[in-house]
Amino acid sequence: MNKTTRILVVDDNVEVLRLFSEMLRVHGYEVWEASTGRRGLQMTRQMRPDLLLVDVVMPDLDGIEVCRQVKADALLSDVFVVLVSGQATSSAEMVRGLEAGADEYITKGTDSAEILARIRTIVRLRDTTAALRASERHYRSLVDILPDGVGLIDLEGRIADANPQAVAMLGFNDREELLWKNTLDLIEAEDRERFKANMASALETGIMRNAEYTMIRKTGQRFAAELSAAVSTNSSGRATGLVMVARDITEHKRAEEELRHLSRRIIEAQEAERQRVARELHDGVNQVLASAKMRLRKVEDIASELKPAAREILSRSHRLITQALEENRRIAYNLRPSDLDELGLAAACQNFCKELRSRTNLRVTCSVPRLRRQLAATVELNLFRIVQEAVNNVEKHAHAKTVRVRISQKGDSMMLQIRDDGRGFGAKTPKAEKGKWRGNGLHNMQQRAMSVGGACEVKSVPGKGTVITVRVPLKPRC
After folding, report:
1. Residue 463, by phi and psi: left (phi above 0), alpha (psi -120 to 50) or beta?
2. Residue 362 contacts residue 401 (beta carbons within 8 Å)
3. Which ranges of the chain have pLDDT less than 50?
4. Angle (CA) 451 252 427, round 5°
5. Ramachandran angles phi, psi of 18, nearest 5°
6. Three-state DSSP class for 206?
7. Contacts of 456 (CB under 8 A, 6+ apart)
8. How many whole angstroms separate alpha carbon 211 and alpha carbon 352?
9. What's the pLDDT at 303?
10. Distance from C-alpha of 299 to C-alpha of 204, rounded to nearest angstrom
11. What whole-number distance in Å separates Cα of residue 458 and Cα of residue 450?
12. Is the pTM of this model over 0.85?
């Protein structure tokens, strides 16, 4: 028997009071006594027993009124009340007592063993209920201190409950003002069909994670939110609604945009420097090399009088200068391909792949159809740089035989895909290679894609190659 269970017995009949008290003490309960209804109510409020055993008929305050006041007090929610009577034993009286909130109704003529069994049952029920309430209070307190908004959405899409953060996030004055609002009214009109579809899917699959929506505060202000949801069920496992967590990601989106602008400025600065160096190579170094080549040619024209060894040195020097000129042009082209500015992305990619085929053993295919819509200059430049980065890394590290470059237009977005049949990589790729390829190279491509509002995805399987996919939203040419 649970010896810590505390029972307050209230009865104006001293002999009955003593009889009940002794019976309960014998079976290990801690028992307190009160001989009037008012005293019993006062002790209940002060001492908060686990169980209140109270006589119905008393001269000052009857047991039903005591029960009604106990049940109306939120601080006494864990106190169970058993009404006991030897006079008010009719069905009508019992109904009246139970309607007042009593958890059990016992007549004094009942056998003591039955009374004790019924009290034991009530004590077990009380302990279980108290544990459930404590658990509910515990989880409620956790929900209330979460930084995110949490709400319970019923099957009709209405807000049945919400924590203070949800109330504040949506701009309402208090919880009651928010309750029973339709969630669709809090979602931007263009997002509502997607929201309904996601809710239906969550009810079917049990969960929805990190879906972004534009939500509407009470004032009409729009803000970006990330919603997650899980199914709420009853004791029989039937869905009763959704528990939804909402996170205001306005600052996160602003930080993303600032990072995108920063990346764009860094890339623009890099491109400006590349263009400057390429121009200096073309206008400076190339001119010097070309001049030296012309002078060597003149010397070769009058070199018939020179010894064969001298003529061979002149010829070799001429070839080296020619080679240096070609290498210098290639470096300048990679720094800033002129055909990208003059002919566009398709021609630049095709020429780049053609040049790669001519100097390597790679089988390179390039599919860039004529675009239905011109791209912004910054988009063309960054897509070309991603092609350069990806293909150069394949050449250096992938040990591939084939590379395929494909650019296509999908609705209002542009898709670039670079696929190779090299050795690929996985989670256990050596750190040295990770720094060269998976680290800096991938980071550079992701930054370039992000700078024009796109995204870069890499899928690789060891021994089966790598696929890089970049998606960029289309914008008018600038």
Report:
1. left
2. yes
3. 1-2, 429-438, 476-478
4. 65
5. -65, -40
6. coil
7. 386, 442, 445, 446, 448, 449, 450, 468, 469, 470
8. 40
9. 65
10. 85
11. 14
12. no
